[in-house]
Structures are given as structure tokens and as C-alpha cells.
Design goal:
The protein folds into three domains: 223 residues, no CATH class; 306 residues, Kelch-type beta propeller (Neuraminidase); 219 residues, Kelch-type beta propeller (Neuraminidase), CATH 2.120.10. It is built from two helices and 80 strands. The N terminus and C terminus are likely disordered.
């Protein structure tokens, strides 16, 4: 994944997550801070994070000052460190060493009537060290060694076993165990080699001394150890053999979101010409992209701007014999806010990539746009479209002819070929097997067709082909191209269809991660098909997606990107999809999950479109808040967003609160609703059903002495959103199992509650289902692994469980990286995505545009978010079925 500029990695390995979960679930009472090192593997590097804290998770930035002069080494070489927001970053050489050490002398201090010198050492290991290698570090050291296929932990002081050393083990389930090393310095503790347990050792040497004129009674040594497995210690040749091909690499997004553009592949480059960048059906001089770009397909990252002709949309671009040909298109002559003044053009031009110059060719007999073009032999064919003559689109007229230009002798001009069966626009045209295919489109009556018509130049006649399968949306602004000798077509539902070898039927071979219209399907350079730009969920997008065609099947990869986030929140933002926008509200500026101090809470809010662009700030919340719940209630065209509850400041304390804030549809402000959650619960599940907002479960937290520290209400509440004077009221229904921090979703008139924490902070293993009509409860099978802070999404009759943290038989919490699906008809769970394509922690999930949206604001880059859009059925469809 490409990182935005000025974004630094931050810890994301399992031991840091374990400590985060321990603090969140159990709380902590910090009395001292120690030097810790943790490591993070990225695809192209490994970064070590250094910080001062009691548990192995970064604390507040104020503590970084104490380790400004720490030294870091690997294999005897000193390593440079740079200051990040909450950690120091130590970038490792390649190949990465097995271990990195840190050391810091905190000098002489007095505490509890004693005067002592304080020495800190820290180590992070990427792999075990052979047991026969001597310990090279002086002072107190803890290391993981391997011998005879087994691993063990050794504590040493000045290279000798530190028998009887006090050791504290931070386990991933939140437990902190007190241990001692044996006579050989060995510590018996599980989970260290797997990165699930971190260790802190203490050793007072009992030797008095003096430092910088200050006397001390002894030196107290503290040493820490974390292990981050997963580094690649294979030989170089093995790494090379297993390295990904270019076909596995992501594409850099198009510089601007764009649809209805000209696209072509030529000479190892993908070309994108102009197009529409604004809201659908709204046009002015500022909504036409005035740029012409190309992407180097050999590295998939380098976009280059080229000289652009007129800004156009509904334009065709084709490649032939080392040149590009631009045909027709539409231009908006009106300024923003003025009545539409839309005109098609008849212009045709040739672009020479070597000289980067345009040359005009004979124009078409009539202006046209939303047509398509293809090259067959040495002839350029143009089919369909309409002519816009100024004013609104209602003044345009359809063109019923098809044209041909001899590219070997363009001066001979255009000729008309046989009339197609019916006038169409917003169609696809492709050359295949010596014939011209006309696929889908819109008719003069405004209908969408999936018809396929075939022109044979040898006979000069049109004939009918097999109808494109699927819903009507498949025929609206599709795209088609012959890739590897087979004709492919894609329409609005994201299915890639392939024409059978007989030419009599279509077969579905793959699902795009991002379904789109007004896009381009083009041949790649790796035996793949490229899906470029287009309109998804009502907005133009920047995405380039690869569909690898192999063995008669197609497979798609997820579309993932990262973006900087405005504001200072690092975690615990409310997350939701309102209309076609992703909204983030509130949050906490510290990565420490227990940092509930009022100064850490923020009112920041932002939103972003699912188009690969950056987030934009919107109006802040009326007050700072974290861990609220965002819901979208069907009101108006896009729906209305409400932020429910959360954790905020109430006088002198920070506690769960029941406020409700309403988001202005334009994002220009939040208003405080009169409705509120009466018991001030948080960590609940919110469901929208038939205009009502329902509240299930949750917990009430109030640290004041006169209040119970945590209660778990079971009363189900309902609020008729939008009705004057309405507020949350009891429904008379109660949860059969108290729970908080669970995943919930509405499907088929029922609300499903999955996972979470119950009384005593114990995981809840049952799945409860509430029927809104009958008010009855039932239970269904639970997924294979328990989750907390996860999301449940209903999509096309199926429930999808993703994000959050999970635990297996070992009871260790770690980031949940899979997505599971529940089919109510089958009554069973299955894993549909084994490893999600983003690496951040605290992953959230929602539905958008018929796909799953994954989001993490706790990525490896401070202040940045990772996002991905995936098909809930990412496996190849290549079952040979004809439709």
C-alpha cells in the first residue's frame, strides 16, 4: 500500500495490541516507566519503535524526553533514530538484523529514602538467537534463544546468568504475571516466541558508586524484551523466488477522480484523457478534468502529465500503430451556477507519444458524445452517441449511424457503414475476432438494454449476439475489450463477463472489488484486464483495478488506499456511512486506550468519499467526544446522520453520556437534539428500523464514588427520530444476555447481536437475535472466534462480521484479520476473507455500493487512515456457467 507523504509508521504488532487490550479491558495503575522497543514489518522495510511506558504500549509524548539520548544498536552498529509523534523511529538496514538493542542511562535519583542509579536496556527480536552465541550486551539483558528446535528465555547480567532475577510478564489476555529466573537465568513463560508476551526484568547490583559528582547506593537495572515474528530471514535466492510479480502490486490512484473519460493502453502505459470529475448530471466548466495522464505499467506507481487538448467528457480514446486517437466528446460551456450549456464536438486528433504532440484529423460529419470507438484492422470505427447542441441534455438528439475512418489514409475522410439495429448511447464498442461488437447502452426512450449487436466488415452487415447477462444496470455505460483473444465486458454490478469461444453466450469469470459505470475495461501488460476510473456509489473514483485472467478464470484483488486525516484524533472516532460519504466524528488524541483524560478527547469531524481522495474536515462536534455511535436514518435524499452517546466530560469527570447530535446534510454543523439516552449508556449497539433508532445493550461508566463504576443495562430503548418532542423510551424488551462492545446489524426484520463483553468483562459466546415484529428472542450458532469491538454488516441477504479484536482457544486478544459470513438460510458461518488488505488495528467495516468498506485510523502512519473496498465474494466465479 502506498503511504501518503509525511506519514511515519507506528507500532502495530501483536504485543502492542495485547497491551492495548489489557489496558482497555482491565485498566492499569502506572507507577514507573521503562524503555521498550517494538518492531513493525512493512512490505519493503522494518521499523523499530522506542518509547517509555509501563506496559509495552506507547504512553503520552511527554515521556519521550527522558529517552532523547538513548542509543540503539544492531550487530554492533549504532542506528539512527528520528522522533515521531509518540515514539522514536529506528529504521533498520537490509537485511533486517535478528535483534535491535536500546540503552539509556537515566542518571542518579532518590526515591523512598534510597539513592540509586537507573539503567535501562531494551531489546526487540525478529527471530530467536542461537543458544551457543554469547550475549554481547553488557548490563542486564533478556533474550530469546533457540536450541534443538526449542526456544527459551534467558536473563543475563554482564554476560552471565542472572539467577533469581525478578521478571514481569505482560500476557496478551491482559494478565500481568510475576516470575523469577532460575539458577541458569532461564524464565519459563509461554507466548514470548509468538510475540504474545512481553517481559520486564529487574536486577539491583548492590554496588555503590558515583556519577557526575553524585553518589548512589546501587544501580537498578531494568531490561525489556519483545519479539516480533514474521520477518523474512530466508536466503536471498528464496526471497527472490517468492517475491511478488508486478501483477500483485497495487496501482497508484489516478491523480483525480474521473469517469466518462477516454482511456487506452499503448507501449506499456495506461493513458487517461480528461473526463468528468463532478457530481452526476451536474456540469460546468469546473467539472471537466483538464488533464491528460499516463501511468507506467511497469511500476504501477508513476503518473505523468502530458499535453492535453480540449477538456471533454463522453470522449473516446483508442490506440493503434504507436499512436492514440481522440474522438468526439462533450464540453460544458457554462460556469458553475449558470444554466447548462452543453455541446458535443466532432473533433478527431492523433497523439504521438514520442513527440508528445497532437495533430488534427478530419472531423466527424456531426458532433457526438457518449459514443464509443474501436480499431479493427487499420480502420477506426465509431458507433452510437448523441449530439448535444447547447442548453440542457433534453435538447440533444440520438445519432443512428456508424462511422469508419481509414487510419492509413485519414485524408480520405469518414464513411458511413450499415446502420446499427437501433440508436444507442452510453454503450461499449469493441473489436474482437475480426468483428465489431456493440454492447448495451441507453435508448431514445430512456431505457437500458443489454443487447449485443455484431458488425462483420466482410459482409457489411449487422447481426444479433448473445444478450449481456445480469440486471439492467449491466447495460448502462458498460465497457468491453478483447483481452488475450477473448472478449470481456463489465457493467454496473461489477461482474466481469467473457464471451464464449462459440460466441453464443457469456460466462461470469470474476467480480470487481469496486463495481462501476462510465469506466474503461482495458488490456493490461500482465495477462490481466484493467478496470479504470468510473463512477462508484454515485461519485467518480481514482481506482485502477487489475483482473488477472488465468486458466480460464479471472481473479480480482481488493482496492486499497491510504489518506491523511484532518484533526488530531488517533483512535476511537465514531465511524459510519451517511449517504455515500464516510463520516468520522470525535475521538481521542492518544493511542493509549485508557487515556480518558478530558484533554485527550477531541471534537474533530471529517468525511471522505469512497473515491480514493483525501478526507476533508467538516464542522466539529458541539463538545469533545469519543466512542460514539453514528447512524444514518432515512430522511431526505441522502439520509440524516446522528451521533449517539459516547464518552465525554461531565463536570469534573469523564464518563459515558447520552447526548444526541444531528449532522447537517451539508456537513456545515451539528445540532444538539432534545432527545437523549436516559441512562447515559455507552458501548451499545444502535439499529435503525422503520424510522426508529433502537438501542441494545451497552454499559454505563461513571467514576464518581457515589455511582457504580460500571453497569450493564439490558433494557431495549427506541427513539422515533425526526418527530418533535420524541426521545428514547423503554420498549419493554430486555436482552437475554447483557453485553457491550458487540457487533450488531439488521437483516430481514431482525437484529443480530454477535460477540462483545458481558458481566465481569467475560466474552459473550452466544448470538442473540431480536425480531422487531414479534418482540421475541432466539439464538443462532456463534462464529468460530469470539470478537469484541467488531462490526456486523448486512449485504444482499447475508451478514458479514469483520474488524475489531478476536480471541481463540488461548483467550489472547489480537486484531481480527478475517471476515466471516452468516447465511440465515444455511444457518452457518464461513470465512470469506482470510486476511483483510489493510494492516492497521482497530479495523471498522461498513457497506457501501454493494461492497464491504474496511477502515482503520490506527494505521502504521500517524495521522493517516487505511481504507479498502472488497467484494464479499472475492473468489473467482469461473465455474463455467453460461448466462
Amino acid at each position: 500500500m502506498r503511504r501518503p507523504p509525511n506519514c511515519n509508521p507506528r507500532p502495530s504488532r501483536s504485543i502492542v495490541l495485547a497491551a492495548s487490550m489489557a489496558v482497555l479491558l482491565l485498566g492499569t495503575s502506572a507507577h514507573a516507566h521503562f524503555l521498550w522497543l517494538t518492531a513493525e514489518h512493512a512490505p519493503d522495510s522494518t521499523v523499530v519503535h522506542a518509547f517509555l511506558s509501563e506496559p509495552p504500549v506507547p504512553d503520552l509524548p511527554m515521556f519521550m524526553k527522558s529517552i532523547e539520548h538513548a542509543k540503539y544498536t544492531a550487530d554492533g552498529r549504532e542506528l539512527a533514530a528520528e522522533r515521531g509523534e509518540e515514539t522514536f523511529l529506528v529504521r533498520l538496514p537490509e537485511p533486517a538484523p535478528r535483534a535491535v538493542d536500546g540503552a539509556c542511562d537515566l542518571g542518579v535519583m532518590s526515591r523512598g529514602g534510597a539513592t540509586f542509579r537507573l539503567q535501562y536496556t531494551a531489546r526487540v527480536q525478529l527471530a530467536p538467537i542461537p543458544a551457543d552465541e554469547p550475549e554481547e550486551g553488557d548490563g542486564l539483558r533478556v533474550r530469546l534463544v533457540a536450541e534443538g528446535g526449542e526456544t527459551r528465555v534467558l536473563v543475563s547480567y554482564d554476560g552471565r546468568p542472572a539467577a533469581g532475577s525478578e521478571v514481569k510478564a505482560y500476557l496478551e489476555d491482559g494478565t500481568v504475571r510475576e516470575l523469577r529466573s532460575d539458577g541458569s537465568g532461564v524464565v519459563e513463560c509461554e507466548g514470548v516466541a509468538e510475540g504474545k508476551t512481553a517481559l520486564l526484568a529487574k536486577w539491583p547490583d548492590g554496588k555503590a558508586g558515583e556519577r557526575d559528582g553524585e553518589s548512589f547506593e546501587e544501580t537498578r537495572h531494568y531490561a525489556t524484551l519483545t519479539v516480533t515474528p514474521g520477518g523474512d530471514d530466508r536466503p536471498d535466492e528464496a526471497r527472490s523466488a517468492a517475491s511478488p510479480s508486478r501483477g500483485d502490486l497495487p496501482f497508484a490512484p489516478i491523480p483525480e477522480p474521473v469517469n466518462s473519460f477516454g482511456g487506452a493502453v499503448l507501449g506499456g502505459h495506461l493513458y487517461v484523457y480528461s473526463g468528468h470529475t463532478g457530481t452526476t448530471h451536474r456540469y460546468h466548466t469546473g467539472t471537466t478534468n483538464p488533464h491528460f495522464y499516463r501511468l507506467d505499467l511497469s511500476d504501477r506507481t508513476t503518473w505523468e502529465e502530458l499535453p492535453c487538448g480540449p477538456g471533454l467528457q463522453g470522449v473516446a480514446l483508442v490506440a493503434h500503430d504507436g499512436a492514440l486517437y481522440r474522438v468526439g466528446g462533450m464540453s460544458a460551456r457554462n460556469a458553475e451556477g449558470e444554466p447548462h450549456d452543453l455541446v458535443s464536438v466532432a473533433d478527431v486528433a492523433r497523439f504521438d507519444p514520442e513527440t508528445r504532440t497532437w495533430a488534427d484529423l478530419p472531423p466527424m460529419p456531426e458532433p457526438r458524445s457518449t459514443h464509443d470507438a474501436a480499431v479493427l484492422g487499420d480502420h477506426l470505427y465509431v458507433v452510437g452517441g448523441w449530439a448535444m447542441v447547447g442548453g440542457e441534455s433534453s435538447d440533444a438528439y440520438f445519432l443512428d449511424d456508424a462511422l469508419r475512418l481509414d487510419l492509413g489514409d485519414p485524408s480520405a475522410g469518414w464513411e458511413r457503414i450499415s446502420l446499427p439495429p437501433a440508436p444507442r448511447r452510453a454503450l461499449a464498442v469493441a473489436a474482437h475476432d475480426g468483428k465489431l461488437y456493440m454492447v448495451g447502452g441507453l435508448t431514445e426512450g430512456g431505457g437500458t438494454v443489454r443487447d449485443v449487436d455484431v458488425f462483420d466488415p466482410a459482409t457489411g452487415a449487422w447481426s444479433g449476439g448473445p444478450e449481456l447477462p445480469g440486471e439492467p444496470i449491466q447495460g448502462f455505460a458498460p465497457s468491453a475489450f478483447s483481452v488475450g483473444g477473448r472478449l470481456l465486458a463489465s457493467g454496473g454490478d461489477g461482474t466481469i463477463y467473457r464471451l464464449s469461444e462459440s460466441g453464443e453466450s457469456w460466462e461470469a469469470i470474476a467480480e470487481q472489488a469496486v463495481p462501476r459505470i462510465t469506466h474503461r475495461l482495458l488490456p493490461g501488460t500482465e495477462g490481466d484486464a484493467l478496470i479504470v476510473g468510473g463512477n462508484f456509489a454515485g461519485v467518480p473514483v481514482r481506482f485502477v483495478e487489475s483482473i488477472l485472467i488465468s486458466g480460464g478464470q479471472g481473479s480480482s484483488s481488493p482496492v486499497a488506499w491510504s489518506t491523511s486525516l484532518p484533526g488530531s484524533a488517533m483512535r476511537s472516532m465514531a465511524f459510519g456511512v451517511i449517504g455515500n460519504r464516510i463520516v468520522l466524528a470525535g475521538g481521542n488524541r492518544s493511542r493509549n486506550p485508557h487515556a480518558f483524560e478530558a484533554g485527550n478527547l477531541v471534537p474533530d469531524a471529517s468525511r471522505l468519499l469512497p473515491d480514493g481522495s483525501a478526507a476533508e474536515p467538516i464542522a466539529p462536534l458541539p463538545v469533545a467526544r469519543q466512542s460514539g455511535e453514528l447512524v444514518s436514518v432515512p430522511q431526505g435524499r441522502r439520509g440524516t446522520g446522528y451521533l449517539l452517546g459516547g464518552i465525554g466530560q461531565d463536570g469534573d469527570v469523564v464518563r459515558t453520556l447520552g447526548d444526541v447530535f444531528r449532522l447537517d446534510p451539508d456537513g456545515e454543523g451539528w445540532s444538539i437534539e432534545t432527545a437523549r439516552i436516559p441512562d447515559d449508556r455507552g458501548m451499545f449497539g444502535a439499529a435503525v428500523h422503520e424510522g426508529g433508532v433502537w438501542i441494545f445493550g451497552g454499559s454505563i461508566f461513571d467514576p464518581r464514588p457515589d455511582d457504580a463504576p460500571r453497569e450493564m443495562p439490558t433494557e431495549v430503548l427506541r427513539w422515533e427520530a425526526g418527530r418533535d418532542g420524541a426521545t428514547f423510551e423503554p420498549t419493554g424488551h430486555r436482552l437475554p444476555t447483557p453485553r457491550r462492545s458487540f457487533a450488531g446489524a439488521v437483516l430481514g426484520g431482525k437484529y443480530y447481536l454477535v460477540g462483545g463483553l458481558g458481566e465481569g468483562q467475560e466474552p459473550v459466546d452466544t448470538v442473540d437475535v431480536f425480531d422487531f415484529e414479534t418482540g421475541e428472542w432466539e439464538s443462532i450458532p456463534a462464529p468460530g472466534r469470539h470478537r469484541v469491538f467488531a462490526d456486523l454488516v448486512a449485504l444482499d441477504g447475508t451478514l458479514y462480521l469483520g474488524g475489531g479484536f478476536e480471541t481463540g482457544g488461548s483467550a489472547h486478544f489480537e486484531p481480527a484479520r478475517s471476515v466471516e459470513a452468516y447465511d440465515p438460510g444455511a444457518g452457518a458461518w464461513r470465512t470469506v476473507i482470510g486476511d483483510v488488505p489493510i494492516r492497521g488495528r482497530g479495523i471498522r467495516m461498513a457497506a457501501i455500493g454493494g461492497r464491504l468498506l474496511l477502515f482503520s485510523a490506527e494505521s502504521a502512519d500517524p495521522g493517516c487512515a487505511e481504507l479498502a473496498i472488497v467484494s464479499p465474494s472475492p473468489s473467482p466465479l469461473g465455474d463455467g456457467r453460461a448466462e
